[in-house]
């Protein structure tokens, strides 16, 4: 097994402390995160050989972003250093009926401005056996559509396994543009990951009977979605995260994995949300770990859901948990008794 | 529509951080709050032209109180600067079976010591079309009873709409004194606001079958209260907030508005309490905004209750929410899903 | 009634702030705690004459441990100053399915290294009428087994009432060694306190049908345990805390007291856990207060359980509550309404 | 005397706490600042009627910027709300031989992208008697050159006094472009403010013998600069701040005012730098206050220098001092004795 | 040697963190302090048997004040619990030319309102051999003048040594009233402590040639003051602290002790001020420790000055240093080399 | 050029925030540091290929130590994971006359308990061309003497350059034992680094006329020391740091390098100390970087002294500066002017 390379944008994440509203006080918690970087950190935490690719300017803030990945053992040696700014986002934690809010300031970032010629995929894919990107990567700019296309072509040529988290972002592109681009890219993808809304927004496949706010998980409806996606694009695996929001604090969480033969539905968890952002990425990180380690489908989806269940209890985009902790939860210990 | 002027005491509010008990650590969060100031901030946040009147000494702490109101766009130009101290209160957040606790240190404050001759109501009411006070204002001192009386007489003379939140405070006056004073003032009031205990304590009108700790809201009982209040004092509107406390963290919250013709009962919300203090004031702020903007009664009570539901998710006395946020919740979006 | 002396190890307790994982940020909250010290603080808070005995090195950190006890009025004049280090432990708060974690670094501490000849029990027991230790004390080292044995012999000789919280710690000794030592010590004990696992681990008495993770409290099973303990060792009182863990945040909590004549089962509380560590000690503190003040059994167990219910809402090992607060909860006020 | 309107960019300012390097910890202090906004806050603090004009997007971060100005009583009603982002800058405090560092992320900000047609100067100058801008404003973009030009023409037409702080920023434009633009603008300016380097960089007038790092203030050299500037552009007043840097912590600070007749050199201060950023702006704020209040030249320069001396002792861009405090220092009380 | 009892007011002390101005951020550091309490803490830190007497209300804030004294081992058992409020003061740290500022909110405090009959001096002086008060105590109210008078009469009757720090506070009383009261009290005093201004303000004895702001210590002038005080009131000892303020950060500090026979002038220290408040009290604490332990005069003044030199490096009113640390500095080690 | 491997102990470093005394508040800043780890971080920051070797237990605190090194790009792959505890130290920052204090709690740490057979030097030295240790490493335990001896023998055999910072620690071993061990080790060392006291304590070579507290640097005296060391042990280079302490805040700092041919004395710097700990290590890191990059001696000592001058302005053990920053200071820019 070679390296798992994930590719996308990492941003400075600014959050008011202590559940305050944005700039209610003058303190911000500054960390870093982004869909594909979050996946790389998950993988490194489980002991996988993870590398991350992006483009960052040559200043102290961007260096700190790189350092924050090295902290977890992610290989950052492929990261390009050019451009003018690192994308930034503000996040405000929700409480009960008040939703969490995200304000993006990511336009004109170094990665969005990077060009096709900046990426030598032959060299970047050296030693790589798995490539992961998300729907956010091409949504950053037209340049990034082209860059991602070239990455996919190169990956295919080298026999690299490709996973994609559809991850629709309405403020980055329209559903029309998303579908135009992503439908072209899907044939290159082996493992397709979606949440309860992405499949419709990004690929036009709608769950018939989803009640995402009603506290009820509609498995059958998502089986149909998975089935249709498999039929349309020939994925090896389709994975869907299933979240119902009771309030900003209380969610129910489960996952479904279709391996072409069977539908595997995980245990569901009643989650008390400590930090919601990065939840989907931690599912992706868990799933890629499981599949790249040849877990059976039923175990793979349980691992991914347990990993992402734990993420909701951890502050920041990164899922700071060990293999042992995921295994313990997956093994049934969910009572939260003190571990001495 | 002219300015909405609110009148009362604003205090320095000192709270231990992070859910600690008082002085468990050496850090205090210092903000400002007070029933009528809280209403003014709510109104300014919704875009109304709100002004606030009080009396504050000429020092840096009092100046910060004024600045904290200007921050939200409240007109503070009428505030008197004299006297020796700003009232202070300590608040400790409750957890589960441990209740929140408030310790007042507000005696001898500049506003409590202010005298009748310090207030030129003719000038203070310039451009004002709505006047709001609470039962706390006259409770501060005998001087303040006199000052409030003069304000009410002047308001009446100028055709200004008057609203009053009964807001009984047992450590400021007895129920006997409260009833003596407030019964005299009620005929000047157009809009009467009360919580589930105020009507009894301040005006002697008791809900027959209220079970405030049992988690059950007894609407019929409060309809009778509203009916009786209307009959006794001829209010245009009687509004009652209905809270049941399951624990310090979990409350149920709803409201009732009697417009003389019909009883309008709002949706009820299951609240996870982040900061309880100022909850009633945010209801008043919402209600005054709605009524001064000629909302229909049913919509007015929904607006006020949605606004105050959100307040419970926000730290500090002030309700830091926008019109859009209240409308979104009132419109039915209470699942707390991330807003990106 | 003389002094109540508690004896054991107090440690520096280091916890990440704001629910973070260990060293996720560079800030740690530094407080002090330890089973027997926690009991002494509870007792001092209720107005009892509590003293604490341990051994601590002569440096600024250890001095702060002593000062933190004096803060609450605990008599620290018996504490020995010698040795090289104060034990330390790290605690990370759990969230939902993620359990709280404790990492101990207490080996080679001053108290663990202290020797028999360092303790002059005749002098240390001066004015003492009640002596409290836990199963942790002898578990610290073979030296401490010997020291504890001598303390018990001296206490017996002086007619001092002895209480013991069995408190099994698997990382300090094996169940085999624990049973060997503690079975020898039990005949000296008047009041035996255990949680739902201790009786089995420390004395080999297993509850037949305990379902500690299922959210159901199995009283009958623990009555049998209490009965067996009484029969084996002749305790005056056997008290058992009954916790069921639904998640790291949500526990149910109750207690049972067997006074040789009757089984008294307390009210049970649905606890929202703010800080779980020290919960059992706060039960012990409440029980010793109640019994040493000659409360009737039924009232004693209610006091101990109410006290420890409140502890779960307070950060740190120490139960920072007053007699009035425990009485209020025991008296039925558990709705968490604001106290102004 | 009408309003004093200042015009430019206000940015989010992010600074590590406690003298740390950037992102050494995960906490940032978030405040707001910008040359012209800083001047407006100084003026409001002295009681002047100050207004601020910029362009900001419609999000919570930009709203906080506006609120932070209202806090001090600055009139923000002219501010345009459009565009996508608020400029941001990071600042790291220096220590001794390690200089303070500023990283700008201000490109593509709402004000830089604003267009000529967004500004209705006739309306914006309503009630305005003094207009202040700096060399940073036109440096933001070619659009801003055009907008500033139109502002100056309109100001001239209305007889508004114009002040300009040359404020060269090498990362925004070249000296060539700066000189091209600013030489065109200077004839509209009544009061020209420069630091020891600006005159050379922006207008090509070099001090012959300035030793800015040597701890020696070369007054004669700067007299010549002032003389030359007056001769070239016909300013009513030329003011120059004179800073010598001994280390990041220790500076010497003085000022020179040439009123066409005489050179007035202020007292010099040995400054212990607490926060250096905004020091020049606080000089501008003091000078405009003094001149608009018809202070004599000698007193005006003393006021401006005393005001800016105090700024170096205050964290953040804004000079949080009162008229009384500036007067006290100007009056000779510089020993820092406790004021009780 | 019996207990040393100090008597006066302890206040809640609120200070912005990190050198900010008052309420520049919403965080305040809350500690406790007051002239006589500070002396008691110093004494306890050196191992003396110190007790403190004041009057405090029965609430959680006042309890924390008491606990903060017990923390250091001060005997608080004599403290009266009655009245309504604890005095409060705000302090803002100065920087360079910006002075530290203190805002008092101490009027109507429990101790100021306490009455003669609340104090049973016979009982309060039990076991006491030294009594210390300051000029602040009688300045609090007319009641306190009476109470202090009775204390002095009782102390005299019991042969207790009395020390007094003149400590003039201009916002509490006029120099006229101060002189009226204090001249009456001086004959009861054995050890008189004054700073460079007190003798003039409180007793009308002016130093002829003091240049307190010029950085030069005028010893001869203060010798005359000491001589005159001794002559007028017959003190056993007159001690004077000599401070010159170069800036808020830089002071020079020395002391003079006249024992009736000789004038002893201490070493002088160049102080980098970390926290100035409580500096005089730490001198008093050191002096009382030295004299009550029969140090020779020359050594006593060196001890007091070294102790108070260290205080300026410590945050908060209390002098958190050990006997060893004072001895080390007094012994000549002032280079600040790391102690490992 | 291969890897530079440094070997020793890394500890958890706990420091009170904001210049407080130890446990004056309940917050500690937790970072990591240790002489040899600090050198590795310096090297990695300059772009060198640095690796670090130690032994750490398998828990979350030790993992954070490793992560904190990976953050800077240090290769941690050789670190052994075994044993029970990570060493800990407390540090309290000094102020003026109050010295910084360090309390060690490092006994029984994993590295001190590690044994000879745990280290396979043949494998550990793979790819290594420079090996660095300090006098602290063998001082940890007798085991570590043996381990270090084996490392030196292996290094010699492989032709690896060896540097050693003598770094005497009096609480770890006596000067007698230090001299016994270190004299044996010195013949293996190519580059010997010492501070003004080490040569005497560790190797018995005393500077004749050093006045470390008098603010005067006695170069000649240290030239003799260097000469003698060279003569005794045949070092290629002898480097000596020269510190004079004026106060805890103010030091003077310079360095001397003897390359066998000439004595090179660096520029001296007046340092305002922000954090003193790690100052010597940052000198070592700079020197090793310079020498391993074949800098001429005069430039090498300037680089090392400039690097370590900057360290004193940075919080924590690690020298968080870039090559560019050291070069800038070495190049003469020491005025601390803002870098925009």
Mean pLDDT across the residues of chain A is 95
Quaternary structure of the protein: homohexamer
Biggest chain contact = A-B, 27 and 26 residues
Largest sheet of chain A: 9 strands, mixed
| Number of β-strand runs of chain A | 15
Number of helices of chain A: 12
* Helix-strand sequence of chain A: EEEHEEHEEEHHEHHEHEHHEEEEHHH
Radius of gyration of chain A: 19 Å
> How far apart lie the N and C ends of chain A?
36 Å
Provide structural commentary.
The structure is a homohexamer of 340-residue chains. In chain A, the strands form three sheets. In chain A, strands 1, 4, 9, 10, 11, 12, 13, 14 and 15 form a nine-stranded mixed sheet that branches. The mean pLDDT of chain A is 95. Chain A is α/β, with parallel strands linked by helices. Chain A is globular, with a radius of gyration of 19 Å. In chain A, helix 2 links the parallel strand 5 (55-56) and strand 6. In chain A, helix 10 packs antiparallel against helix 11 (297-311) and helix 11 crosses helix 12. Chain A is 35% helix and 23% strand. Chains A and B meet through strand 8 of A and strand 15 of B. Strand 3 of chain B pairs antiparallel with strand 3 of chain E, so a sheet runs across the interface.
């Amino acid at each position: 097994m070679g390296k798992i390379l994930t590719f996308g944008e990492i941003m400075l994440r600014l959050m008011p402390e202590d559940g305050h509203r944005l700039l209610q006080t003058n303190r911000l918690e500054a960390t870093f995160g982004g869909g594909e970087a979050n996946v790389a950190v998950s993988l490194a935490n489980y002991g996988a050989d993870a590398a991350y690719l992006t483009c960052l300017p040559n200043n102290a803030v961007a260096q700190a972003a790189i350092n924050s990945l090295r902290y977890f053992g992610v290989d950052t040696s492929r990261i390009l250093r050019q451009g003018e700014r690192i994308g930034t986002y503000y996040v405000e934690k929700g409480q009960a009926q008040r939703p969490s809010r995200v304000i993006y300031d990511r336009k004109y970032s170094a990665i969005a401005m990077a060009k096709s010629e900046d990426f030598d995929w032959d060299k970047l894919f050296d030693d790589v056996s798995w490539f992961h990107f998300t729907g956010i990567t091409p949504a950053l700019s037209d340049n990034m559509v082209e860059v991602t296309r070239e990455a996919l072509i190169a990956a295919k040529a080298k026999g690299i396994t490709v996973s994609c988290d559809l991850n629709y972002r309405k403020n980055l592109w329209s559903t029309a543009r998303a579908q135009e681009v992503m439908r072209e890219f899907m044939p290159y993808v082996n493992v397709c990951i979606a949440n309860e809304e992405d499949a419709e927004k990004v690929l036009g496949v709608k769950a018939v009977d989803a009640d995402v706010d009603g506290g009820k998980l509609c498995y059958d409806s998502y089986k149909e979605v998975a089935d249709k996606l498999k039929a349309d694009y020939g994925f090896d695996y389709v994975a869907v995260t299933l979240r119902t929001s009771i309030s900003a604090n209380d969610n129910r969480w489960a996952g479904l994995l279709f391996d072409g033969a069977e539908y595997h539905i995980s245990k569901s968890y009643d989650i008390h949300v400590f930090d919601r952002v990065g939840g989907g990425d931690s599912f992706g990180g868990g799933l890629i770990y499981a599949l790249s380690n040849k877990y059976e489908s039923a175990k793979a989806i349980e691992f991914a859901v347990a990993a992402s269940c734990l993420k909701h209890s951890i502050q920041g985009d990164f899922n700071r948990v060990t293999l042992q902790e995921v295994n313990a939860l997956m093994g049934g210990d969910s009572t939260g008794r003190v571990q001495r």
